[in-house]
């Protein structure tokens, strides 16, 4: 992996990047440890996006690993940094920018979502402040909160977000399908509980959700065979782990007084819970 990093850094050092001539990295920067603070591979393994910290910003470089060349590089901007990033498909990168407040070194997400192709084309702000996709509204502000629930591996043009319905008066969340090229939103299902955390299948259909009731009671619900929300009994003793992308979801349960944890498989359709594994001491 260090060999890949070094190749990328050498390419960054001696390339003309984007529309500006970036200052070549010094030997100290080039061989410092670590040179790369984060990286992400495209699903097909062809492209790698790396983040290289610089003064008051981050440099992002996208490399074609087969051709061993930089396809595009850019700086996040003055006092702007890379927060989170991941590939939506084999050629398009999703970016959640971040800032640093005052003298703190910690990064804070700006709650914006951008997307850019491997070659720098179709750079677009998809979600966040001043994103307006309607003709009538001016400076419309989408709700700040969003979370990427799924990149929808069977769909190269959309991802699935959960967003806050109304942050002023409600903690209900809405699943929304987002076109990663046009920025258009397609509302899907709304949570039936407050402060919801969704678990979805490959196609973005919710199969389980956890949250709280109006009385602040913990709720765990799942979609049954009729595609209706059904409460899981004794929910307080279980933690939702993941979806098996079929009729099963995985749960964990602490064994009282034994400091051990059971891993269980729950079938949403027939409500069976076979025991899978017993974890050791924490």
Tell me about the largest β-sheet: 5 strands, antiparallel
List low-pLDDT spans.
13-27, 131-142
Radius of gyration, in Å, reads 22 Å
Order of H and E elements: HHEEEEEEEEEEEEEEEEEEEEE
Helix count from the secondary structure assignment: 2
Strand content: over 45%
Class by SSE composition: mainly beta
Structure report:
It is built from two helices and 21 strands. Residues 13-27 and 131-142 have low confidence and may be disordered. The strands form five sheets. Strands 5, 6, 7, 8 and 9 form a five-stranded antiparallel beta sheet that branches. It has a four-stranded antiparallel beta sheet with strand order 1-2-3-4, covered by helices on one side. A four-stranded antiparallel beta sheet has the order 10-11-12-13, with no helix packed on it. It has a domain at 196-282. The protein has helices at residues 2-13, 27-31, and strands at 38-41, 47-54, 57-64, 69-75, 81-87, 92-100, 107-109, 113-117, 124-127, 146-150, 158-164, 173-179, 185-190, 194-200, 206-212, 218-223, 229-231, 239-243, 248-255, 260-267, 275-279. By secondary structure, the protein is mainly beta. It is elongated and about 55 Å long.
Task: For the structure shown, list the relevant keywords.
single chain; 21 strands; five-stranded antiparallel beta sheet; 2 helices; 282 residues; four-stranded antiparallel beta sheet; mainly beta
